[in-house]
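USER:
Working in pairs, take the chain set out below, taking as long as you need, and write a paragraph about the fold.
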Amino acid sequence: MSTRITPGQIKKTNRQQIYDFIWRNRKVSQQNISYELRLSRPTVAANLTEMEENGLICRNGQLDSDQIGRKAVAYSIVPTYRIAIGVEVMRDAVKLIAVDLYGQKIRRVVLDLAFCHHDDYYQELCNHILQFIASLDVQEKQILGIGIAMQGLVSADATTVVYGMILKCSGAKIDSFTRYLPYPCSFIHDPDGAALSELWASPELTDAVYLSLSQHLGGSMISKRQIMTGKHGHTATFEHIIMRPNGTPCYCGNRGCAETLCSMSALLKGDDPDRFFEQVRSGEKEAVKRWHVYLKNLGRLIAMLHLVQDVDFILGGHLAKYITPEDIRTLYDEIHRSCPFPDTDDFLRLSKMPSHNITIGAALLYIQEFLADIGSANEL
């Protein structure tokens, strides 16, 4: 069988490399591209012309040139050439976001819409999504797809919620959305969405454990910049590790799970987070005690997980913005008390994406797919 590379394949590869280079560097000249990618000037010029005519890139001022008296034309991608929609479905609300090809927010809204695993709910939500897209004033072809973050485990093909006890939506199918929406749609487990946005914000990140410290505890495992799913789809369900047998009942049916000790709801017990942490920082005795108990339990959980995964641990979710360097120090102290051997204090990190991380991550499913295959874009 022939393994010869065809001219068409070469053209796709060149286009992919050139677009990637412009995307990464934001503003470049033809000379920059030719020199860095070792492509001929005619090849670069032809690709730039084609991509500019099709709206993927645009001229963006000028750059200094080595040639005396002349400045080179600068090129940038058109960030809104394609956009993606992220949806986060919760018990009492839905969050919608539109992001461009850099993952930057274009528009965001929060809907007061109580979840119900019924077709009437899905139809109403889809109508809201369509209204949201209409408010963006974009063409239908600009929408890459809609990522839908669910509080539940999702099948490998992203079409089914296989375990959704929080929302009581086990068995929910993606066609509950696609029957009303003219766009590709995919489910994603909400902590995986948060971890995906963390990867986007941290190009240096390769392997890590992501802990989502939000109303419910969640997690994700990152290996070689990929979200791990596992054989049965429940990798990184740290929230159901039993830390205190016969403890507080968990929604999963067991008692004493990490969810009942390390989630934001377990800490706050219905209190307003801003008010609670004002009390903590001002030294209010009862609030300080609750916070220290929480950090102790979280430290114990991290210590157990760190024995299994000797990688960086990222503390994300709604709680991350309240964690101080002193709190990190307290966590390390608890981890050291639990670990049987010495460890250095260099593996805890605060999230770089404390806001809108789940919805952005859900949208990034489609942004990443588009960027990875721009060389094969049909419309070019």
